Amino acid sequence: MYDITIIGAGVIGNFIARELSKYKLNLTIVEKDNDVSNGTTKANSAIIHGGYDAKPGTNMAEFNSKGNPMFDKVCEELDVPFKRIGSLVLAFDDKDMKSLEELYNRSIENNIPDVEIIDGDRVVDMEPNINGDVKGALYSPTAGIIGVYELAIALAENAIDNGVDLKLNTEVKDIEKTDEGYKIFTNDGEIKSKYIINCAGVYADKINNMVAEESFKILPRRGEYYVLDKSASYITNHVIFQCPNEFGKGVLIAPTVHGNIIVGPNSQELNDDERNQTQTSRDSLEYIKKTALKSIEKIPFNNTITNFSGIRAEPSTGDFIIEELEKAKGFINVAGIKSPGLSSAPAIAQHVVRLVQEISGGLEENLAFNPRRKMIIFSKLSKEEKAELIKKNPRYGRIICRCENITEGEIIDSIRRNAGATTVDGVKKRVRPGAGRCQGSFCGPRVMKILARELNKDMEEIVKDGNKSNILTGKTKS
Amino acid sequence: MLNCDIVVIGGGPAGLAAAIEAKKYGIDDILIIERDKELGGILQQCIHNGFGLHVFKEELTGPGYAEKFINELKGLNIEYKLDTMVLDITEDKLISAINTKDGFMEMKSGAVVLAMGCREKPRGALSIPGTRPAGVFTAGTAQRFINIEGYMVGKKVVILGSGDIGLIIARRLTLEGAEVKAVAELMPYPGGLTRNIVQCLDDFDIPLLLSHTVVDIKGRDRVEGVIIAKVDDNKKPIPGTEKFYECDTLLLSVGLIPENELSKSAGIEIDRGTNGPKINESMETNIEGIFACGNVVHVHDLVDFVTEESRRAGKNAAKFIKNQLSKNDHVINTEAKDGIRYIIPHEIREENLDKNLDLFMRVVDVYKDVKLVIKADGEIVREINRKHLVPGKMERVKISIKDIKNKNISNITVEVQGKGKQYEGI
Ligand SMILES: Cc1cc2nc3c(=O)[nH]c(=O)nc-3n(C[C@H](O)[C@H](O)[C@H](O)COP(=O)(O)OP(=O)(O)OC[C@H]3O[C@@H](n4cnc5c(N)ncnc54)[C@H](O)[C@@H]3O)c2cc1C
Ligand SMILES: Cc1cc2nc3c(=O)[nH]c(=O)nc-3n(C[C@H](O)[C@H](O)[C@H](O)COP(=O)(O)OP(=O)(O)OC[C@H]3O[C@@H](n4cnc5c(N)ncnc54)[C@H](O)[C@@H]3O)c2cc1C
């Protein structure tokens, strides 16, 4: 019997798990996929928003403003890349300038520090590649960028280090109320749990409907992106937004923590049964291209290295839903966590801990809690450190990914860790081979060999991502 | 810190030929650094015939061609390190590299020869929409799986791009029992050599769809099919021409890019036409004593030319060490004009010319019955009639030394003339 079962190993579920592991609890996370951070958390803008955007008084405003300042500490503890680079919302006409004022006023109501409206000259001074027609911008220096799946993975690892149990490939099919709590039916047997925390992302309404009547709907919306090569990084050092107008929220141009540039997203409503449809489409990509060129006229789209898309979990209520269900005690929804969900994650997690404390009548601290998780990133080490490391473990002397200079040592480490990688994409999410400009055409076969060796599998059994995404189809004749 | 006269980065045919030639010109202290577990570069996975017709007057396989050089290299006792990656080079020719045995190494070299080859453009470079399932490979990766690792990458295959690697892999897959459904090519002409179209597609009844491209990829876990559409003159898909091809694999043979991350870190100037370093008559870059040759300079279709050019690089690196290269001399620039994408070399220091000059170039489009016109300071020095010019084939043009030496010429241009209607622009 678990005290708490968390459904969904995205950034929200994992953050809550890690926060709860500071207390003496018997915890498990169940995740339907074969890896953590495989839902919305793996495909978004990865921006820690300043917090001026959300409507004052909403959960989104509250948790974004509280969450943003918490990232420095958690990223330092967990060795997750995070940079506070600031953001600019660009205005190109009087109407836009009006929108900036509205946003500015919201920033005051939401208690966001240091936000200011700056004039066009200063914008171009800060970012010389921005379209010279710019009239002004809302500058929010506390906005940041983060390694988002690295964060979610690090949280899971650290939670496991502190006693949490992670069940992958385990899909919740149904839930039954019992005297002691709940019985959770999965494809891999039953789980008994006193409490449940529903962090199932775009499927959160389905989980809710297993224990209660429908009270909200998740309306899936896709956003697509371009990723540009590192050689395009000169185009901006800040996150560049556009003013919301009657055509939508515009698209953003942002550096990533690894030195690439991302451009996107659009927003496309999907049907109810399309929640896993993360393809891209020509129309959307063309729209993004066209729209982004308004902010920066010369974006080197010919240096694109990949495209991707993610699905927003838009709640029909319009705001994050974070509460214990009246009709199902001990069942907490953390649902409709659309943007700025990532930015709000640390504050949401603390809030959920308070809810659990109230529901359970108090929690006992886990004195053995270790907040730290370490990662070796070879390319970041000094010459002396590199030499020293290879002496200790020669596998750090073999480069597997030539684009990002990732060593065999790092790849093995990513497989052997808690919540370790079991797929080619899993290795890529953790240590980045295949995320560079050649997109794995060089390292792909080499990473597969390492996976096969470490997991004691045949090459033909190695998958790209999902359990059926086998890469090879057999042996050659000779 | 190690010290070397010449460090050669990359042990493919370019690096091998350069090292051998430098040794023959009297330099003993040479080191080749290769990141793979064997020498030979990309040739090791090209197990088909078609290498060496120019250099050896016989048809060899890729590994066969490489072996001749590797044996010679070993005979000459030239040192090499395998499984060793060069991480960085500086302008001062300070090289850092790592491997599992020696760990982190730094070495100072008198001269450097860059011979890192090239890499393939991935799917992202084309922004092909659709899902991102398993089963999408670059043709070279597929070639490596099949020819080196012994694994099949799919059963029903569509190939996008008609570059040589794509054509050769189409034949190889067919011989291995896979069904190659089609090769789609965006341009109105094939990218690879004609002999490969005939021997790899026509002989196996594989359709080549010119002016077509893949506009969508289907399948969540594994590729389940692709949609191919015809494109118009602006390379935009024509609505209504989409056709679904059921397949489990999509191979991309959509172009190669010289691998110049190291060159850039050393501050070497890159030509936007070739994506490789700018080069002079001695295969030297804009940084004195750093030479480059092979696919790192410009993508070759024939290894024989790689060998030739790399011998020149090796010989000149040796001359540089011996202080025999003239530096401050009269310089002639080359310039690609109408119909020509690029010319190698970019500049010629007259005093270092000791024999006729070879210019290497590619055209931008397919031309029939045209003239290649070479001018020195605007005056025609040579005209060559050509029945057929294609971008997929590198052209070599010889200029007699007496036409340019001691004439105080400052620029040589090459253009395609008489192309009339065939010219469609790029
Ligand atoms: C295009 C886009 C851009 C965004 N940009 C930003 C941004 O810049 N800044 C920001 O703050 N936020 C942003 N967001 C929002 C942010 O990405 C999300 O708020 C956050 O990732 C949500 O995390 P999650 O853990 O709730 O969901 P997910 O990561 O989707 O996790 C839910 C998990 O639950 C699992 N699951 C579902 N059903 C079951 C079941 N039955 N049994 C077991 N497991 C199940 C899923 O497999 C999944 O792993 C963006 C979102 C999108 C789509
Ligand atoms: C698939 C294919 C088919 C071909 N078919 C034919 C044919 O039929 N006939 C023909 O004549 N020609 C053919 N060619 C052309 C010819 O083989 C190539 O042009 C030639 O191999 C290029 O030689 P290279 O030495 O410049 O590059 P490569 O052979 O690519 O060698 C470069 C070497 O440098 C190493 N390297 C790169 N970076 C580093 C680093 N940082 N540190 C250490 N080492 C590094 C690489 O591992 C590699 O071994 C073909 C080419 C290809 C790719």
How are the SSEs placed, and which strands pair?
The complex is a heterodimer of chains A (478) and B (426).
Chain A: E1 2-7, H1 11-20, E2 27-30, E3 47-48, H2 59-67, H3 71-78, E4 82-83, E5 87-91, H4 94-109, E6 116-119, H5 120-126, E7 136-140, E8 144-146, H6 148-161, E9 165-167, E10 172-177, E11 182-186, E12 189-198, H7 204-211, E13 218-228, E14 239-242, E15 252-255, E16 261-264, E17 268-269, H8 282-292, E18 304-315, E19 321-325, E20 328-335, H9 341-360, H10 383-392, E21 399-401, E22 406-407, H11 408-416, H12 424-431, H13 444-455, E23 474-475
Parallel strand pairs in A: 1-2, 1-12, 2-9, 5-14, 12-20
Antiparallel strand pairs in A: 3-8, 4-8, 5-7, 6-7, 10-11, 11-12, 13-16, 13-17, 13-18, 15-16, 19-20, 21-22
Helix pairs in contact in A: 1-6, 1-9, 2-9, 11-13
Chain B: E1 2-9, H1 13-24, E2 30-33, E3 49-51, E4 60-61, H2 62-75, E5 79-81, E6 85-89, E7 94-99, E8 103-114, E9 118-120, E10 136-138, H3 139-149, E11 151-152, E12 156-160, H4 164-175, E13 179-185, H5 194-201, E14 208-210, E15 212-218, E16 225-230, E17 243-246, E18 249-252, E19 256-258, H6 261-265, E20 290-292, H7 303-321, E21 331-336, E22 340-344, E23 347-349, E24 357-363, E25 367-376, E26 379-389, E27 395-399, H8 401-404, E28 411-417
Helix pairs in contact in B: 1-2, 1-7, 3-4, 4-5
Bound molecules: flavin-adenine dinucleotide (FAD) (2 copies).
One flavin-adenine dinucleotide binds at residues 7-13, 30-33, 38-41, 44-47, 49, 171-172, 199-203, 207, 223, 265, 310-312, 337-343 of chain A.
